[in-house]
């Protein structure tokens, strides 16, 4: 999805001369086409994310549409205050693109795990936070953010994600959750490429007669409360799935919204990284297994919830 | 439009004192040290249009030391960006003018500041954006940012100094209000900036050091064209609390708000 977005940025820049791309010295082997095509609108600011965020805000204040590119923690956490004060508080047309969301850089170690970013960004007033699940969603989200403008945060994985959407998303409105599989017994609400694990878990459960739906949630903020309310009223169980710490991300957002619904409503289970669990070095798949975010782990969560 | 900047500076100091006293607010020392810089800038040097604050032909001014908001608001009000009586509401509940610089609802303010180390990176972005539009024009728009000395402790400024030098942002001018005092003590004791001129020159900026209370020197340093393609930084040597004898060069007035008797004495000194 990284290369899909890099290509999408070239298309956006072609269509709109206000589009600029900044990178914090990352994106080697994916940024080059943009840099070659639009050398005047591409700047490698160096390894200096605070400055990058401030520059992005300043550029946007002169009428530019700016995209910033770095690895999740550097793009978001290193310069969170610049994102808050300079970009979001001014409503600047800046989209921060974070690569390596969740456990994408698993084997690189904890410094490179992007697992608190959704909590930190989604609380900023007026921001859009988007997390595509596959390359198709990535292209569609970028196009939508290009139209809509910032402030926005786009969290990507890296590359090699399987395609989950069989049909084009071009005509699909941006914002609502996307149904990948309907189900009567409950639903997984997943965000990012780990949505593939939720789909696989739903298949495993179907073999045992349990009909779980799967919804991709590409937009965490603003959350699609309409669909969520309907699902929470119609179904007994909602399981949020994300490569993120348990609190504050998609699970947090869903739990907040469902808790305020009157009357009978679904039980909400959050699947994510439990910081109480001992840490472990491993790749993305290994860490998904560790935190029971793989298909087997997710299916087991549903089974034990139903047997409780 | 060019004002009598010396009298303008005196008016700004009086406004700031009244605002800070009324609101029992901090930072009068930080306001007074930059009164003369603001008086020259808003006395005619900056190309701005109070009747059309969003006029695209304007120079961009950023007050990165957003804690000195009171005197900045005073300059904007005196120039007619908004009514002078707004100043009376400074820091009041529900008022537009907050304790630190806010752009929301305040005509003439480019960006909200208050957390230090934010202004120069934003200024770099503005300078890049304006340069792209003004290429080849005889009178390109300028971006001018005023920073405090203590603020230079923030690493983000040094990212921006490196960046602007490397990218040859000659349309950018930074002014350092070097009053030598930050919140806990003298800058030389807290985190020494010296040799400041050498550090800034090493980042490939043109460095001009001036007496930040000498209006001719301020004006000359700001009107001198950029040297080659370098950005310009003006080290304005100033006195914290300048203009009120008992506030000058005294750490106390970074935070203390004047009591009634001190306020009266200060106003008298300024001929109010």
Short structural summary:
The complex is a heterodimer of chains A (308) and B (272). Chain A has 12 helices and 12 strands.
**Helix and strand pattern of chain A:** HEHEHEHHEHEHEEEHEEHEHEHH
Ends of chain B: how far apart?
Answer: 24 Å
- Output the CATH topology of chain B: Rossmann fold
Helix content of chain B: 25-40%
Q: What's the rounded overall pLDDT mean of chain A?
A: 96
State the major sheet of chain A. Answer: 7 strands, mixed
- Strand count of chain A: 12
- Round the mean pLDDT of chain B to the nearest integer and report it: 97
Query: What integer value in Å does the Rg of chain B equal?
Result: 17 Å
State the CATH class of the largest domain in chain A: Alpha Beta
CATH H-level homologous superfamily name of the largest domain in chain A = Thiamin diphosphate (ThDP)-binding fold, Pyr/PP domains
Strand arrangement within the widest β-sheet of chain A reads 2-1-3-4-6-5-10
Largest sheet of chain B: 5 strands, parallel
Beta-strand content of chain A? 15-25%
What is the tally of helical segments of chain A? 12
Enumerate how many helices of chain B there are, as a single number: 11
Coarse structural class of chain B: alpha/beta
